[in-house]
Amino acid sequence: MSNPKNIQVIIPAGGVGTRMGLGYPKQLHRFGNTTVLGKTVSLFQGYSITVAAPEAHLQAFKQALPQDIRLVAGGATRFDSVKNAFEALGNLESNDLVVIHDAARPFFDPSQLDAACALAEKKGAVIFACKATDTVKHVNADKTIGKTLDRDSIFLAQTPQIFKAGLLAEAYQNIPKEPLPTDEAGLLESLGVDVTVMPSSPGNKKLTLAEDVSLLQTDLPRIGHGYDVHCFDPSRPLYLGGIHIPNADGLLGHSDADVLVHALIDALLGAAGLGDIGQWFPDNDPQYEGVRSTVLLQAVMNELERLGYEVGNADVTVMAQAPKLASHIQTMRTTLAPFLKVDSSRMNIKATTTEGLGFVGRKEGIAAQAVVLLSRRHEG
Ligand code: MG
How far is it, in rounded angstroms, from Cα 334 to Cα 241? Predict the structure, then answer.
């Protein structure tokens, strides 16, 4: 700022976000490598910040925030939370600025803050607001339209809301009787203070409903590739794609040698950056001798699930000169899809010969390649 002075930031985060249906405060929802609140707090880096948190969740908030953030217990309403936080700031100079910003508005563009604070120094009270883009109707109690409002003069109030501390202190001495204003600007308006509007950036959305969670997805999907070969062993049964194929030579291996499932497991591990199947299930470990490969697949899926991954789709190519696989493909798909928790349309399997070429063509063994796409599931 051109004229640096004491600027205090208050972030009311006292709500538990029941409208989002998450079962925990929406402010603690994961957002990239932090939380919604962590992202919002980071917008005001360098300022003195006070967060009003739900009393029952103070410890969780303490852990989620940098140590230099002041934490106070929020009140029953947003209004009370801001008031509690303001009172916790003690005696401020009347020209100090108080910036109030919703915890659930993590997309505010902080480059707008300096200009807004400079304006608040001049005007005393400034809020960000968004010009209405839809036509706005005043609706009667019986759901009929009373009148159409002039859209050009309609703004939807947002935060930050910035006030001189003296004005805010005076307003809290003169709180109007019910109904309470739903924002601090309303409180000052009730005292006859002129509040100036700054147009907000279009992305300054407040996270309110469950579908808003989709706005938080920042992880890119992850791709994985797997490749495996096993040679034939006519003394063993053939397991391929999670099923037993009768009347066919089996494959040599420590486990059931299901080469298709092995390629799929390697693709899954690869996508998650977790190494390969040999590291997870060593072929000299007696506990995996003769084990069905679908057991290993389930173990890998359990780990991926624990890490928050879900499968987008998988595509596998089996290279085999023999046996003929076409009549088994659909059964393999419907067998493996539930392990990946996808519909069988997302668990594709293709089989090809190699036109008699190479070790596959000479019927020495079977090879398989797989690719999968993983995405990180939304969670808190
Ligand atoms: Mg293998």
Answer: 10
